[in-house]
Amino acid sequence: MDMQGMDHGMAMAPKSSHNCSMMMNHKRHGMMHMTFYWGKDALILFDDFPAGKTNMYVLALFVVFLMSVLIELLSHTRFIKPGSNRVAACLIQTVLHALRIGLAYLVMLALMSFNGGVFLVAVLGHALGFFVSTSAFKKSHQLDEPYDLPPMAC
């Protein structure tokens, strides 16, 4: 039986433009790193950022550092005074919690670039934020007490 001229419902699907654009993007950006590497040629949080430019890479590192410091400050600082309105205090705590979690997710996404510099500034930012919020500006009698890490609750 000759099957060359028969159509059996197995027509080739047209090539989608989505696949073509994915291939072009992959070629344009090169290989995505899955291990730590050093260098300014990283994509951090946004497409084409920092785009291999040294000044933009330094800016990206600075932003990740500031976000890490702010996460620690939000985690270890009490913003609500005793005796405050419960509803207002709850709303403030909720907003601060959402801000802290949002920043933490952004730092996590930046770390997924697997860039060694991003990793180092994130760790240093968390360390500095922890130092500033827990020990640097405490009164001397408060430092004599043993300090243990507080729970991560607001």
UniProtKB/TrEMBL annotation:
GO CC annotation: plasma membrane
A Pfam cross-reference name: Ctr
Subcellular location: Membrane
UniProt-listed InterPro entries: Cop_transporter
Membrane topology designation: Multi-pass membrane protein
Transmembrane segments: 56-75
Keywords: Copper, Copper transport, Ion transport, Membrane, Transmembrane, Transmembrane helix, Transport
Entry's family note: Belongs to the copper transporter (Ctr) (TC 1.A.56) family. SLC31A subfamily.
Protein name, entry field: Copper transport protein
Species assigned in the record: Cicer arietinum
